[in-house]
Amino acid sequence: DDTVYLFVVNHPHQKSTVELFKFVEDDNSLVHLKTVRHDLLTSVNDIVAMGPDSFYATNDHYFSDFILMFLEAFLGLTWSNVVYYSPKEVKEVAAGFYSANGINISPDRKYIYVADVFDHNVHVMEKHANWNLTHVKTLQLDTLVDNLSVDPHTGDIWIGCHPNGMKLFYEDPENVPASEVLRIQNILLEEPAVTRVYADNGSVLQGSSVASAYEGKLLIGTVFHRALYCEL
Ligand SMILES: *[C@@H]1O[C@H](CO)[C@@H](O)[C@H](O)[C@H]1NC(C)=O
Ligand SMILES: *[C@@H]1O[C@H](CO)[C@@H](O)[C@H](O)[C@H]1NC(C)=O
After folding, report:
1. Ligand 1 centroid to 190 CA: how many Å?
2. What is the SS3 assignment for 221?
3. pLDDT, tens digit, 9 for 90 and up, residues 90-120
């Protein structure tokens, strides 16, 4: 059907839920349909919808306890994963990430892209009929990759990145986190084109985490700073 659904990652009391909404065009409102919770949805960072109540989710950590989460990152454990959720079946479909972050899908719906923020790369995974994912390739990038947006017309991947991620953890007005937006074209080719479309030392925009292009315009969002509108 033509119904527009909205999937929202929520973290009530340090736990993870996914909230499903239906958009009602007549009165421009959202109707809450349900709250999804599951033991495999431990530390959800991002999701990509597969149907009205099914999705892939990245868990950026194995642990949800704050101290254990810190230890996990500190020890460099690769226990972060991707989970497929539907009301009938929930399962781990990819594992072995330092910290799986942004997730998205190619316009032909054949490939899933997963950003591993601490490993500085984007994984291309092939999606199968049983929803399992198999690894196709990894594109190494010299920056911390956060959320991924896919242009539905061109298939380009737009990434909000952190060139100096540690600065996100210190609130030092003299030493603010920078911003960087990368555009990946033809990720399946041997040599995909990687373009640094936007870069700033933090004087304009701090901690870019997401970038989305639409009809010659670009919106860049951040972890806790403002959003930036650019004309391409
Ligand atoms: C982008 O990523 C950050 C951290 O990984 C997350 O907190 C934020 O909600 C994401 N934003 C969007 C628009 O997906
Ligand atoms: C950041 O860039 C701006 C503009 O180029 C410059 O004026 C400023 O000194 C830079 N700040 C730092 C901390 O490098």
Report:
1. 29
2. strand
3. 999 999 999 999 999 999 999 999 999 888 9
